[in-house]
Write a structure and sequence with these properties.
178 residues, alpha/beta, Rossmann fold, nine-stranded mixed beta sheet, 6 helices, 35% helix, 30% strand
Length: 178
């Protein structure tokens, strides 16, 4: 089994929550980024990229006009390249664990992002990330990579998965084999 674990599952099941909990509880040096929803008056209006070293940028917003778009959101591809890609590259160079939340439609509009993800998976570093359930050919090939294990998160298994991830030492190999 691989040293990369990619969590997948339905939106809202807790994939990002699992990663953020694991990152804050883990002793090793983590680098990379996560995404978070932006809400106004209880309604989701967009998403933000947050690097683990504190940089932030809009990923997408309902008020962003023009292309590219994913659903009702206009995507800031330039912010993916300016914040997410360097966060992945710094993590590969400096951290023990590379966090990539998430490998989704919006992020994948950036070719440099695809290259950075591939570089992370091909590196000797352990990678923990999230990936959309159904993707294009590139995503499906990534899921079949020999060093990648894809784990589906559900409401029923998410706490158990956190416990398994929390027990990880070193690479994810031992966890993936269990």
């Amino acid at each position: 089994m691989g040293r990369t674990v990619l969590l997948t599952g339905r939106p809202g099941v807790g994939k990002t929550t699992l990663i953020r909990k694991w990152t804050s509880a883990h002793q090793g040096r983590c680098g990379g980024f996560y995404t978070q929803e932006l809400r106004e008056s209880g309604t989701r209006v967009g998403f933000e990229i947050v690097s683990l070293d504190g940089q932030r940028a809009l990923l997408a917003h309902v008020q962003r006009r023009g292309a590219p778009r994913v659903g009702k959101y206009g995507v800031y591809v330039e912010h993916v390249e300016a914040v997410a890609v360097p966060a992945i590259e710094r993590a590969i160079a400096e951290a023990d664990y590379v966090i990539i939340d998430e490998i989704g439609k919006m992020e994948l509009l950036c070719d440099a992002f695809r290259a950075a993800v591939q570089k992370a998976v091909d590196s000797p570093k352990s990678v923990l990330g999230t990936v959309m359930q159904h993707g294009d050919r590139w995503v499906e090939a990534l899921k079949r990579h020999p060093d990648v294990t894809v784990v589906t998160v559900t409401m029923q298994n998410r706490e158990h998965l956190f416990d398994q991830l929390a027990d990880c030492r070193g690479e994810f190999r031992s966890w993936c084999a269990g």
